[in-house]
Amino acid sequence: xxxxxxxxxxxxxxxxxxxxxxxxxxxxxxxxxxxxxxxxxxxxxxxxxxxxxxxxxxxxxxxxxxxxxxxxxxxxxxxxxxxxxxxxxxxxxxxxxxxxxxxxxxxxxxxxxxxxxxxxxxxxxxxxxxxxxxxxxxxxxxxxxxxxxxxxxxxxxxxxxxxxxxxxxxxxxxxxxxxxxxxxxxxxxxxxx
Amino acid sequence: xxxxxxxxxxxxxxxxxxxxxxxxxxxxxxxxxxxxxxxxxxxxxxxxxxxxxxxxxxxxxxxxxxxxxxxxxxxxxxxxxxxxxxxxxxxxxxxxxxxxxxxxxxxxxxxxxxxxxxxxxxxxxxxxxxxxxxxxxxxxxxxxxxxxxxxxxxxxxxxxxxxxxxxxxxxxxxxxxxxxxxxxxxxxxxxxx
Lengths: 193, 193
What we know:
2 copies of one chain form a homodimer. By secondary structure, chain A is of the alpha+beta class. Chain A has one domain (17-141, 160-189): 2-Layer Sandwich (HIT family, subunit A). In chain A, 28% of the residues lie in helices and 13% in strands. Chain A has helices at residues 18-25, 90-111, 166-189, and strands at residues 53-56, 60-64, 74-78, 116-122, 135-139. A 5-stranded antiparallel beta sheet of chain A has the order 1-2-3-5-4. Chain A is globular. Chains A, B: This is HIT domain-containing protein. Chains A, B: It comes from Neoarthrinium moseri.
């Protein structure tokens, strides 16, 4: 029975990084030719908690935030594990920057919301929760007329975030992937990408 | 006297964009060989309000926020006018992304503060104040131990921001430029940039 006794020297296994879990569950695909919405490649159940992928390249992943501040709240991260923005490579940093623009365009088209925040938190004092570097893209549907220089708003207010509805998320992610495809097609047509 | 009468059809001149003003007042320089701190190229009085430049390339500008949320609060923007992140070019977006990483490294070294936020606001509803796309880099010196999933913090709280002290700003900007130079030297040594 000794083998079942509590042994304080044995540590529990380290919690796996949730974004690395997502990265390992979703293969990359060409964002200008995304798989069909019902493809196993994009099945939300490939990982727990359910994940709703909008972008999966050899370098980057983007998916819906499971506790969105607003409809369309996205996360963009490198596939490779890195804690903070200072830990990514120069090319990952540039590619994150390039895709923030593409995702922003696709998100505005999908949601019809013209205003949004891009936020990237580094460390606990900066409200980073998942220790895998990521950018938030957060649509801001409330238009508050403001001529004021300084405006208060709560970034991560308790009670503001609601759990994602799974059926709506499947639909929303599909439309964002379609709009990413459209944006990339237009960029290619203009010779910009 | 008719010519001095109030004519409601004559609009006042459009306010010039403050970040375009800064762009036109500061020529670009090689960030891996910045000018001396007392060079006219970097004179804070080249424009009003005073500007404290930490980066000036043919494409990008970075300078101290004049109402910092914390010591070292920086702004990074494209030199060319664009309102929102969706209005920049693909190459500007990538270069912004690449320099967010470089500036983050230089800022952590300069301030000794390991945690920071990167924030980019698009539109009035998202608290964008200056209509020229820019990223904030905001050191977060308060370490608040947090095991909580959701944490409240005020992003742009009234009363949190203080005006920049000019003498301290000159010194701080010089040290950030030096650390950008060091970071770029190290990157070049590693063949990463």
